[in-house]
Design goal:
Helices cover 28% and strands 28% of the residues. By secondary structure, the protein is an alpha+beta fold.
């Protein structure tokens, strides 16, 4: 491939709104072009990377027994209304109408559609288990598209689905997919962690997330030097609370004017914030007909983990109550809420660390007032205790090691959906006893286009992108320093032919540009090996540079192919080791 014939619009400066390293470098290197906020064109170099990622995915999915197919991106809304996600998915769902005023959506994911196909196509357990997948663009109306292609409105995903008649079939498919995902991310060259995760809007209970540590990660990974890793929504630590032994004192109501936060209340009362009870008031949607008000109590220096609370409640949606509901149920505005005197219509949940506390301060359900010396059972009830808090760095994880935090980019997610969708959509088969049973499902997803951002975040340097050879757009970049010199161009072409015969993808910079421009562009676009044909071409000697390390060596032309083979093998081994 001649560089003069490929679109690579490199830039000296990054976009002014670019925050992430991957965003800056992929724009500067001429890989992506912004068409609209959150909508990107993948230029030839990025498209070649995506195709290589797709090939790796196809190979590993085939090994795992999954079969590729393709679903429409434009979906009738009826199925999503039937599953309940047409409303619950929220504002991220692109909704539209056709000319006959029928409701459609642009698919953000395809559980409902695949379930419909299986429901109408398979009637017996004898045709299961089955695993199918697709590589397709998805659409989500992100409120704040950012970080380039990392969080956009349109993006490519692998989404796969398993269907079985029994739990054993689901477990087998899930394990095979988990192994395939590890193989994919290893081959792509990513450093990643497999973590316990919350299923969110996907439904189901069991899930694992694959997350790539990166400075611009959207999620916090809680991990240890042992074998524990979870996202913050699911992370737990060993309970270390010690029962306070002070004698319960008399409950007193104190004025705390202007104190709306824990720290302000602690200052007003002259107490430590750890002895203040934080009361968070929620409205939990249990079903279409029932909404349950819930008051959650935490130590003042802890944060409510809404995912844990939602799981415990088993509710469909959980939202912070507005001021109107706070006044209606508790008689005060947020900032002055507490458990004392709360009626039975409000469920009171408390974190385990509250259970060991004595003589707490809490909101008095009277604006501008707090109680001191409030005690459980004597002054207020708790309907249920549990782990409802976010863990903190340094706490001890279940594996006995201290917890560390790192931001991470979600690159893949696998779910044991069970019968979450098949029940709602009526997907059943006859089992071996002739009884109708709900199909048991798994769902498996990889953010294909966001893998480019994740790799770039982990590998790019100040000079540009640095691609692992497994997904690099080209293996070798051949640069004749002066394209006007016949001997340099002749040697560059000979080397290109030899390398291509050996099976390598080669980009030749045949442009009539200054050497400095060529070298700067080469560093930007990040091809693993660069061969410079310069002044020593007449002596049959070229320079080989390793993009990742910056190391350079001089090699005779007849040794170039073997040298490139050795270097790429070494780089592939390094990438695999670092990924693990």
């Amino acid at each position: 491939m001649q560089q003069s014939k490929i679109l690579i619009p490199t830039k000296k400066e990054a976009p002014s709104d670019a925050e992430a390293l991957s965003h800056k470098m992929m724009v500067r290197a001429g890989y992506i072009y912004q068409v609209s906020a959150g909508v990107w064109a993948y230029l030839p170099m990025a498209y070649r990377v995506i195709r290589k990622v797709e090939n790796i995915i196809r190979q590993e999915m085939e090994k795992a027994g999954a079969v590729e197919m393709m679903m429409p991106a434009l979906l009738p809304a009826d199925l999503w209304k039937e599953s309940g996600r047409y409303e619950s998915y929220g504002d991220n769902l692109f909704k539209l109408k056709d000319r006959r005023d029928r409701d459609f959506i642009m698919g953000p994911t395809h559980e409902e559609t695949f379930t419909e196909v299986i429901r109408d196509s398979i009637k017996s357990y004898k045709k299961l288990p089955l695993v199918v997948y697709q590589l397709q663009d998805k659409f989500r109306d992100e409120d704040r598209p950012r970080y380039g292609i990392l969080r956009g409105k349109e993006f490519e995903m692998l989404d796969g689905y398993s269907f079985s008649a029994d739990q054993a079939g689901l477990d087998q498919a899930y394990d095979l997919q988990a192994r395939a995902y590890r193989n994919i991310f290893d081959r792509v060259g990513l450093d990643y962690k497999v973590i316990l995760a919350d299923s969110g809007t996907m439904g189901g209970k069991n899930s694992q997330e694959f997350s790539a540590p990166a400075a611009v990660g959207e999620d916090i990974i809680a991990y240890t030097d042992g074998d524990y890793a979870a996202n913050l929504e699911k992370a737990t630590s060993k309970f270390t609370g010690v029962q306070q032994t002070a004698e319960p004192e008399k409950l007193e109501k104190k004025p705390t004017p202007g104190a709306h936060s824990v720290d302000e209340a602690a200052e007003s009362l002259g107490m430590d914030s750890s002895q203040i009870i934080k009361a968070m008031f929620y409205m939990a949607k249990m079903s279409e007909e029932e909404t349950q008000p819930v008051l959650v109590l935490m130590r003042g220096n802890d944060e409510v983990n809404e995912a844990k609370l939602k799981d415990e409640l088993g509710c469909e949606e959980l939202e912070l109550a507005d001021e109107e509901d706070a006044v209606k149920y508790l008689g005060a505005h947020p900032g002055s809420l507490g458990p004392v005197g709360v009626g039975e219509d409000v469920k009171i949940y408390a974190d385990n660390y509250v259970k060991v506390m004595v003589n707490m301060a809490c909101g008095a359900n009277d604006d501008g007032h707090h109680y001191i010396n409030a005690n459980i059972d004597r002054d207020f009830r708790v309907d249920q205790f549990g782990d409802f808090r976010n863990v903190k760095e340094g706490e001890i994880a279940p594996d006995g090691h201290p917890i560390k935090f790192t931001p991470g980019i979600e690159i893949g997610h696998i779910f044991k959906l069970g019968t979450h969708y098949s029940k709602k959509l009526g997907a059943q088969v006859l089992d071996s006893n002739g009884r109708l049973v709900d199909v048991i499902m798994g769902s498996y997803g990889i953010g294909v286009s966001r893998l480019l951002s994740a790799v770039a975040e982990q590998t790019a340097d100040d000079n540009g992108l640095v691609w692992p050879d497994s997904i690099a757009p080209f293996d070798v970049h051949v640069i004749p320093v002066n394209a006007k010199k016949a001997d340099q161009m002749e040697m560059a072409n000979e080397l290109t032919v030899a390398l291509e015969k050996a099976g390598y993808d080669v980009l030749v910079d045949d442009r009539k540009e200054r050497a400095g421009v060529k070298f700067a562009d080469s560093d930007l676009i990040g091809i693993p090996i660069r061969i410079t044909v310069g002044k020593k071409a007449s002596d049959g000697i070229v320079e080989i540079k390793i993009r990742k390390t910056g190391e350079t060596i001089e090699v005779k032309t007849e040794e170039v192919v073997n040298t490139v083979a050795i270097l790429l093998k070494q780089l592939s081994g390094q990438d695999a080791t670092e990924a693990k």
